[in-house]
Amino acid sequence: xxxxxxxxxxxxxxxxxxKIQSPPGMRDFYPDDMRxxxxxxxxxxxxxxxxxxxxxxxxxxxxxxxxxxxxxxxIVSELFHFQDRGEREFAIRPEMTPTLARMIAARANxxxxxxxxxxxxxxxxxxxxxxxxLREFFQWNxxxxxxxxxxxxxxxxxxxVAFLRxxxxxxxxxxxxxxxxxxxxxxxxxxxxxxxxxxxxxxxxDRMTKTPAAEFDKxxxxxxGGSAPAARLRSVFRQSSLADAEAALGGIxxxxxxxxxxxxxxxxxxxxxxFCRFDPGVVRGIAYYTGTVFEVxxxxxxxxxxxxxxxxxxxxxxxxxxxVPGVGFGMGDAPIQSLLAxxxxxxxxxxxxxxxxxxxxxxxxxQLMAVANRLRANGLRADFSYKRQALGKQFxxxxxxxxxxxxxxxxxxxxxxxxxxxxxxxxxxxxVAIEELATELSRL
Length: 444
Ligand code: HAM
Hints:
The protein has helices at 7-13, 31-50, 64-71, 97-106, 150-166, 181-190, 198-206, 213-224, 230-237, 242-249, 255-269, 315-318, 333-342, 365-377, 391-400, 411-416, 437-443; strands at residues 54-55, 61-63, 81-83, 89-92, 115-119, 122-124, 136-145, 174-180, 276-278, 292-298, 307-312, 326-332, 355-359, 382-384, 405-409, 418-423, 429-433. By secondary structure, the protein is of the alpha+beta class. The chain has two domains: 41-342, Bira Bifunctional Protein, Domain 2 (BirA Bifunctional Protein, domain 2, 2-Layer Sandwich); 355-443, Rossmann fold, CATH 3.40.50. A hairpin with an 8-residue loop joins strand 10 and strand 11 (307-312). Helix 2 (31-50) runs antiparallel to helix 5 and helix 5 crosses helix 11 (255-269). It starts with 6 loop residues before the first helix and ends with a helix. Bound molecules: histidyl-adenosine monophosphate. Histidyl-adenosine monophosphate (HAM) binds next to strand 7, strand 11, strand 12 and helix 13.
């Protein structure tokens, strides 16, 4: 049988390949973008380590069942999933927490507590791409496991705030909205929503700020209006301090209230309370949260959530492991980059060469290579032209590569072992002995 070409393959062979772009919601990282990305990753890593977290990683895809376990079949439409040749169902990870829980459950008894781990996984969600929401993104995760005390909840929030401060954001630009599922359940109970109906109520509340008010009120009143009309819900759930929410209810008490007061005291002790605000409207859509919940938002609400997290105390138990309590958060790269760009705070970064080496004559090229080897071995960024050409052309390349200095290898080198170091910003030049060169360049 003869070979047959599909139209596209045929077009490729005769040189008419249709232009292929990157898929929607996915990004190319050109070197300028990669520099910004690495800057962000460095900040995430430094902040994590300053709080004693250590880094881990997991696989890019998992068994689909891992995600269905807690979230049900509904999650499948939000995932990129596929079958392998053995007809096993996998999904590209849409988040890290199930992987983390699986890894912890597998070694629950061997890991010293508390477990403080962070990661910067690449992940995919089958989203409709929009500003700050992509199909492929990176997400910083930091989680504390093996400790069910409020100090851990407060510490993961402190990690988030340390990062916000580190990138120069103030409480007037970014806020951490904090609540707790048990406390919100208590508030719902106070307005007459019984525990067995609260799951549905939380789902709706999670969408409260993202849905137009009239539409939300209609949905709410249709389902829950009999117990509490939307206006009553708002009077409690749109308050920005616990005292105001309590005043609207005539006070609440009980363990959920006490635990939340504990959290607030720890937030003050970690010196991060200025970034935090109580917001009972934050209930988090993800099914596994059992305690504290929080989200980071741009203060002017110009972006979707910058980060989200909370306490999940039953997740490892679902994976046939012993129950290991956990608390943590995820923060996307895209929303942060987009906020910084809108604020005009994208850092100015360069990757200038430390030195561009120039030979005054082609016969000095072997010495030039020896100098390049020596500088590179000393950790300096050094480069040179592949072509032997006139001095002027080599200087031009030095400037186009944004080198800090040009190092000229010529007769002085032959006679006295000296090189001419020219500062390309000021034009000043000086003779430097070969033995001194690396130290001199590092000093410059
Ligand atoms: P999440 O709320 O689904 O939580 O995502 C957390 C953050 O990831 C969001 O606030 C946002 O910054 C970023 N993010 C989510 N989807 C996208 C997207 N399509 N494009 C860009 N960024 C996005 C979780 O994933 C939990 N597993 C977090 C967690 C860790 N909870 C406890 N530990």
